[in-house]
Specification:
128 residues, mainly alpha, two-stranded antiparallel sheet, 6% strand, DUF3551 domain-containing protein, signal
C-alpha cells in the first residue's frame, strides 16, 4: 500500500477560515476601541465638533465625519470578501485602503483617495 503525500487543494473551508479571522480582527478592533476610549489619556484627545475618530484600528485617531467612520466599519466587516482567497491581495477593482501603515483592507480607488485626504487634513479636525 502506497500513501501519497499530496498537498490538499484549497477548499471552501479554507476561505471560511480567512473570513472568520477577519471577523475576529474586526470584533477585536471594536472592543479594544471601546475599552481604550475610556482611558484618561484617550479622553484628553478629542475631535473638533462634527467629527469622530475613524478607528480603522484602535490606534487610528484621525478625526473624520460620522459617515466616513460608518464606511470604515462597513469596509472592515467586508474585508475578507474583497480579498482573493487565503491572501491579502485585493480582488479586481479594489485597492488597499491605506488608512494607516499596513492597512490592507480592500476598497475602491475613489475611497482610498478620500482616506488619503482625511489623513492630510487630520490636524485641522482636532479640538483646540
Amino acid at each position: 500500500m502506497t500513501i501519497s503525500a499530496r498537498k490538499p487543494s484549497p477548499s471552501h473551508s479554507d476561505n471560511n477560515t480567512v473570513r472568520s479571522r477577519y471577523r475576529i480582527a474586526a470584533l477585536y478592533a471594536f472592543l479594544t476601541t471601546c475599552v481604550s476610549a475610556t482611558s484618561p489619556a484617550m479622553a484628553a484627545m478629542e475631535c473638533a465638533p462634527g467629527y469622530v475618530w475613524r478607528v480603522a484600528v484602535p490606534s487610528d485617531l484621525v478625526c473624520v465625519t460620522p459617515e466616513s467612520r460608518s464606511v470604515v466599519a462597513s469596509e472592515n466587516a467586508r474585508a475578507a470578501s474583497r480579498h482573493l482567497p487565503a491572501s491579502d491581495t485585493c480582488q479586481s477593482g479594489y485597492v488597499w485602503r491605506e488608512a494607516y501603515y499596513g492597512d490592507k483592507v480592500c476598497t475602491t480607488p475613489e475611497r482610498r483617495s478620500e482616506v488619503r485626504q482625511e489623513n492630510i487634513v487630520a490636524s485641522q479636525r482636532v479640538a483646540q
